[in-house]
Amino acid sequence: MDSIVVPAWSQALAWIDDTLGGAGLRPTGPVEQTRVRPWSVLAKVPVGDGTVWFKANGRCSTYEARLLDALARWAPGRVLEPIAIDAGRGWSLLPDGGQTLREVAPDDPGHWEELLARHAELQRDLAPYAADMVALGVPDMSAPLLPGHFAALLDDEQVAAALGDDLARLRAYQPEYERLCARVAASGVPVSVQHDDLHDGNVLVGDGYRFFDWGDASVAHPFAVLLVALRVAADRYGLKAGDPVLARLRDAYLEPWTGHGTRAELAAEIEPAIQVAKVSRALSWQRSLADADAQELAKWGDAVPGWLAELLVPNML
Fold first, then answer.
1. What is the pLDDT at residue 106?
2. Dihedral over Cα of 292, 298, 300, 302: its sign
3. Are 309 and 302 in contact (CB under 8 A)?
4. Which own/partner pairs from 101-110 qualify as long-range (CB within 8 Å, at least 24 positions apart)?
5. Within a 10 A sphere around the Cβ of 49, how many other Cβ atoms?
6. What is the dihedral of CA 197, 169, 299, 314, to 10 degrees?
7. Is the model more confident about 226 or about 8?
8. Residue 198 CB coordination number (10 Å)
């Protein structure tokens, strides 16, 4: 089956065969595309009694393959390490990492504390490689660049039309957004990798915590990762803004950062970091949908104006 991301599926199959052969392996059944999106294709490859996975990123995120390769060197044992990548085409062959935290953890938010703490440690340790990540093509969403991105989104005709009455309110919000970006830019916490889709379904457990699915990643203030993470936890467990459980999750995430400020100082940085990250989240969706057809835009297209409109509503904390 052909797809938008892999127009020449036969080339992908040949690459899979060659790559597995180089590792002394071979497919033992047909390769099955299990997820086809405008931004990526995921395929299941049976090998012996097990499985490996092929991922093809669209042009919006070909950098993921290069980032995976680099993360395997910089943080071995803490990410899902690829068997092989094709850096130019954005292809990667990945081992089956086992079960996710979501699959094995009890149905309560307590297990998120360890998840967030381990991810914060990973971000902290990867901060020295931020410039290297940008050189690999990972989007630079550091705070000084965000006001320009915000203005460009509001000037986009399709985005402006989708925003409707919110457009004028967002234009009026631009000076406040610039102020928040300046505050985030002045932070003593260094920029690092920002997963942008962190939750318990994107971390493998068993032999430590290993994070995967970096197709939305950027280089930004690390606290921005809580934008999605806390929302997923709140939605899953019915937590309202101000719930003490959310405060516990926040504190667990902040603990590895205490070398960069007091707990109170660090906590004060979360709200602005989350707020300005809504623009980078909108941009991620815009990139992801660049090759989408009408049906796909009908399904996911509201995400771009939706995340911009989120600038006008309170956050979880």
1. 82
2. positive
3. no
4. 101/200, 101/201, 101/203, 101/204, 101/205, 101/209, 102/199, 102/200, 102/201, 104/205, 105/200, 105/205, 108/237, 109/233, 109/236, 109/237, 109/239, 109/245, 109/249
5. 6
6. 40
7. 226
8. 26
Secondary structure, 3-state, 148-165: HHHHHHHHCHHHHHHHCC
Helix H or strand E encompassing 294: helix 294-300
pLDDT in tens, 166-211: 999 999 999 999 999 999 999 999 999 999 999 999 999 988 999 9
pLDDT of 133 > 80? The answer is yes
User: How many angstroms separate the CA atoms of 13 and 312, rounded?
Assistant: 46
Strand partners, 196: none
CATH code linked to domain 101-312: 3.90.1200.10
Q: How many residues does the chain have?
A: 317
The token pair that represents 26 in the structure block: 């071979």
φ and ψ at 84, to 5 degrees?
-165, 160
Query: Is 9-95 a CATH 3.30.870 domain?
Result: no
- Which residue type occupies 121? E
Same fold, 9-95 and 101-312: no
Domains of the chain, residue spans: 9-95, 101-312
Q: Which amino acid is at 102?
A: R
